[in-house]
């Protein structure tokens, strides 16, 4: 009897730890309607309505922050960026001194949240990591091609309906990325 109890406990522990340590597998369901993109994983599914026009964003990335994938609607990365003109102004004003540019960023920076359109793009986005925004020597030029996400059409996280206010998507904050390129600034 003791052996049976031990075997059951070991089996439960193995199943519990095996399931909790599995990597998240996001499925890029692709276009499921006219300008509607879907991303899903297990009991979570997000449908986004996209802007009709495609965009190409060319800027300087000062910092990247990892997002938690499906737990954040499929978002993989937040990029804190500057226009090329603002990056040049920063270099003229502060040089590469490592001076904390928070006041400068408050005035000139923008942020974009990236969602991959495919597993290949997901790998590119996940591999991109900028270490320290205070060191302008680590900044990178980047180009993103894709579509602005207009709104969350339908969302479920762990089987529960979720909503994201439409103002969160203003100014093309969320981008469905078809292509990402980056190089040293």
SSE topology:
Blueprint: H1 2-20, E1 27-33, E2 36-41, E3 44-69, E4 75-82, H2 84-94, H3 102-108, E5 110-116, H4 119-127, E6 140-157, E7 160-161, E8 174-184
Parallel strand pairs: 5-8
Antiparallel strand pairs: 1-2, 2-3, 3-4, 3-6, 4-5, 6-7, 6-8
> Which stretches of 5+ consecutive residues score pLDDT under 50?
2-23
| Terminal Cα span | 67 Å
Q: Please bin the fraction of helical residues.
A: 10-25%
In what range is the share of β-strand residues? over 45%
How would you classify the quaternary structure? single chain
Calculate the mean pLDDT score and round it: 84
Total count of strands = 8
Largest sheet: 5 strands, mixed, barrel
Order of helices and strands: HEEEEHHEHEEE
Q: Indicate the overall shape.
A: elongated
- Number of distinct helices: 4
Class by alpha and beta content: alpha+beta
Radius of gyration: 20 Å
Strand order of the largest sheet: 3-4-5-8-6
Can you describe what's shown?
- By secondary structure, the chain is of the alpha+beta class.
- It is 25% helix and 46% strand.
- The chain has a five-stranded mixed beta barrel.
- The longest helix is centred in the N-terminal third of the chain and has 19 residues, at 2-20.
Brief descriptors of the model:
single chain; 185 residues; 4 helices; 25% helix; 46% strand; elongated; disordered N terminus
Briefly summarize what is shown.
This protein is an alpha+beta fold. The protein has helices spanning 2-20, 84-94, 102-108, 119-127; strands at residues 27-33, 36-41, 44-69, 75-82, 110-116, 140-157, 160-161, 174-184.
């Amino acid at each position: 009897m003791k052996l049976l109890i031990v075997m059951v406990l070991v089996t439960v522990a193995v199943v519990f730890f095996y399931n909790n340590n599995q990597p998240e597998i996001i499925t890029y369901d692709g276009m499921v309607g006219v300008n509607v993109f879907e991303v899903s994983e297990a009991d979570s599914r997000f449908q986004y309505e996209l802007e009709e026009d495609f965009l190409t964003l060319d800027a300087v990335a000062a910092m990247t922050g990892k997002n938690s994938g499906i737990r954040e609607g499929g978002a993989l990365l937040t990029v804190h960026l500057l226009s090329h003109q603002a990056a040049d102004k920063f270099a003229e004003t502060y040089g590469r001194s490592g001076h904390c540019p928070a006041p400068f960023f408050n005035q000139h920076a923008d942020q974009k949240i990236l969602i991959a359109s495919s597993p290949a793009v997901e790998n590119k986005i996940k591999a991109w990591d900028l270490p320290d925004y205070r060191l302008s020597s680590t900044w990178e030029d980047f180009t993103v091609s894709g579509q602005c996400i207009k709104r969350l059409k339908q969302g479920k996280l762990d089987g529960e309906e979720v909503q994201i206010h439409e103002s969160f998507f203003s100014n093309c904050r969320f981008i469905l990325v078809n292509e990402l390129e980056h190089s040293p600034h």
